[in-house]
TrEMBL record:
PANTHER family: GNAT FAMILY, PUTATIVE (AFU_ORTHOLOGUE AFUA_3G00765)-RELATED-RELATED (PTHR43792), N-ACETYLTRANSFERASE DOMAIN-CONTAINING PROTEIN (PTHR43792:SF1). One of its GO terms (molecular function) is acyltransferase activity, transferring groups other than amino-acyl groups. Gene3D superfamilies: 3.40.630.30. InterPro entries: Acyl_CoA_acyltransferase, GNAT_dom, N-acetyltransferase. This is GNAT family acetyltransferase. Keywords: Transferase.
Length: 174
């Protein structure tokens, strides 16, 4: 049992990522899409995946009560991807992000999971705004962000980075 809130949709369980997800995180962080669009996190072993969860995922979850979530298909327990709410340096608020294994893309899982997490951001965690970033060539990500209701808001360069990213924003209407 996880001490933090999990969420469900018709097809999915969305629960905070934990050490038990290390083999899945290792696989996800080494997919061609992750390496191309998010970047190499130097997670080259299960031990490195555990250390990544410990140092990059759990601290924010413990600090804010939300962070990275593992997306699991209810029908068979398969881990499909991750989505999350991130306190990312260089952004004026919380970033919504997602990444799925290639074999689970184009089935609507990313929208289903991130839409539920967007609702949770506003209704459960009390956020009033969400932000998102994506590379200029990641058309699938841009399309999903727009489907979630985020609006393109120009370009941004994060601290200690060289690449300009597309910057999106959504404010909860009162």
């Amino acid at each position: 049992m996880h001490p933090y809130t999990s969420f469900e949709t018709e097809r999915l369980i969305i629960r905070p990522t934990s050490y038990e997800d290390a083999p899945f995180i290792y696989e996800l962080l080494n997919t061609p899409q992750w390496l191309k669009y998010i970047g190499d996190r130097n997670v080259k072993s299960l031990k490195a995946a555990e250390e990544y969860i410990s140092s990059r995922m759990l601290p924010q979850l413990e600090r804010l009560g939300y962070g990275t979530y593992t997306v699991i298909r209810k029908a068979d327990g398969t881990k499909l991807g991750t989505c999350g709410l991130y306190d990312r340096e260089g952004l004026p608020g919380i970033d919504i992000g997602f990444a799925f294994l290639p074999q689970h893309e184009k089935h609507g899982y990313a929208f289903e999971a991130t839409n539920k997490l967007k609702q949770a951001a506003f209704n459960h965690f009390g956020l009033r705004q969400l932000y998102a970033i994506t590379t200029k060539d990641n058309k699938a990500s841009q399309k999903l962000l727009e489907k979630l209701g985020l609006k393109y808001n120009g370009l941004i360069t994060l601290p200690n980075a060289n690449e300009e990213l597309f910057f999106y924003h959504l404010t909860l209407e009162k």
